[in-house]
């Protein structure tokens, strides 16, 4: 109960902001669609498509970061989709504003707040879990351990952590984790990731 209360106090404001801001942005998009011929349920469908596309693209962007699918510095398809959704959302909000500076600012506020709330939730969801550092665990060896065993046998704690990562990846994606994805998640070398993967597959 105490843990739930802490979670609610920490995440509740962000969720409330996301709901309120999303409703405001949704209303502006719906009204803009209705003003331009998309009447009835179609105006609602347009608003749902734009807002959910932004949420979906943000989630996919975080998933790419976790799996190391996109190399650093490259623009991925989810980023392009997210940018397009942001442009459409802001354009719809500004179309409903009075033609003044403050009119544009206040009209764009719901869309901006919604995107900020979504990015905050995605940032928390993608944050590292309170696990022991795999890099630190890998170097915590006994001084009298032979050098060849240090190189060939991963630390038990690191192996357990890698096994949990592999199981979570398989449960989420329905397929075994790759060496590159394991290396990206653990922050280890290619050789160590290969050794861990080999050990996990032969265990």
Outline the structure in words.
The structure is a single chain. The chain is mainly α and 203 residues long. The protein has 2 domains: 2-125, no CATH class; 134-202. 77% of the residues lie in helices and 0% in strands. The protein contains 9 helices and no strands. It has helices at residues 2-35, 41-67, 77-95, 101-125, 134-139, 147-152, 156-173, 179-186, 190-202. Helix 1 packs across helix 4 (101-125), helix 2 packs antiparallel against helix 3 and helix 3 (77-95) runs antiparallel to helix 4 (101-125). It is elongated and about 65 Å long. 22% of the residues are buried.
Q: What's the SSE blueprint?
A:
Layout: H1 2-35, H2 41-67, H3 77-95, H4 101-125, H5 134-139, H6 147-152, H7 156-173, H8 179-186, H9 190-202
Protein name: DUF2637 domain-containing protein
Organism: Nonomuraea africana
Pfam family, one: DUF2637
